[in-house]
Amino acid sequence: MTHDYSDALIVQEVSPRDGLQIEPTWVETTDKIALIDQLSLAGFSRIEAGSFVSPKAIAALRDGEQVFQGIIRHPGIIYVALIPNLKGAQRAIESRADELNLVMSASQTHNLANMRMRCEASLTAFGDVVSFAGDHPVRLNGSIATTFGCPFEGRIDEDRVLQLVDAYQALGIQSVTLADTTGMANPRQVERLVKRVLERVSADHLTLHFHNTRGLGLCNVLAAYEVGARRFDAALGGLGGCPFAPGASGNICTEDLVNLCDEVGIETGIDLPYLLRLSRQLPALLGHELPGQVAKAGRNCDLHPPPGYIATL
Ligand code: COA
Ligand code: ZN
């Protein structure tokens, strides 16, 4: 059987970062490392393994150095670190992150709440990050949080998002993520904006980051895919959320996304049965149920024995 790999959908697994940053219970460093090492065997080409932000802002991920030091690196996998500023970049590069994910919000209010600075200050800091990173073999990606809506400001002007894409490119950052921080995107909006961004950024440099806060996560993936987007963030079990965005909840669930792709015939290269086994370990690790649905329901092909009584009918 031949595959047209240009139709393949690339999943970047973000549970170790977006997923764990909002968990109220401390996850031991060894458990984080074990989770990432297990995820490294699932077929992902990219894993966001942690963040290097202020430990006061996100205490749950304060052990970034130890995590990056402890994981087993697989040659085919890019291990990504989220950073907000130069200090984060220095820590991440020191910890041998393969890619820095620079994050700011389209919304001034959310940037102030999350990064404690205005958007302009984030961009200035990113200029310093780019200069510093230039001396090191590290990739850069620029994320735009609240692209599709902000829990404080509501609607975000699409031109504002395009200006930020241009600002990243002017800094020399070619790869961009459009993030729907609190699940406010709808498929029509996604279609429209992704088409416009793809006029500036090639599909292999554009990632969509959806949260399933209002149940539209996978609808938005399909809408973006149909107009040419190929790269998507997702979190095992549907973990995730920004602690500085009221009402935030989980990312789109990786195994639900892979199940969708398997069902409609989109190649991902990810081992779904393996992923389901990993996801089913999460309640024991985190002490609560997770929003992911396929881990509970099973795949369509996981059939049940018929009830005994039908033999008597
Ligand atoms: N890593 C570790 N420590 C950092 C840091 C980083 N990347 N950036 C700043 N700090 C430390 C400073 O050294 C300083 O420490 P001190 O109090 O011991 O001197 C302290 O944090 C305050 O520094 P300052 O630059 O004034 O930061 P701030 O308090 O204005 O916060 C951010 C700004 C960006 C560091 C903080 O808001 C942050 O980390 N936000 C990220 C939130 C996040 O991850 N959200 C979810 C993902 S989108
Ligand atoms: Zn997110």
Automatic annotation (TrEMBL):
InterPro entries the record matches: ADH_Zn_CS (IPR002328), Aldolase_TIM (IPR013785), HMGL (IPR043594), PYR_CT (IPR000891)
Record has Nucleotide-binding as a keyword: no
This protein's UniProt keywords: Lyase, Metal-binding
Any Pfam family matching the protein: HMGL-like
EC number: 4.1.3.4
Keyword Lyase on entry: yes
GO molecular function: hydroxymethylglutaryl-CoA lyase activity; oxidoreductase activity; zinc ion binding
Domain Pyruvate carboxyltransferase, first and last residues per copy: 9-276
Example GO BP: L-leucine catabolic process
SUPFAM superfamilies: Aldolase
Family affiliation: Belongs to the HMG-CoA lyase family.
Protein name: Hydroxymethylglutaryl-CoA lyase
Highest classification ranks of the organism: Bacteria, Pseudomonadati, Pseudomonadota, Gammaproteobacteria, Pseudomonadales
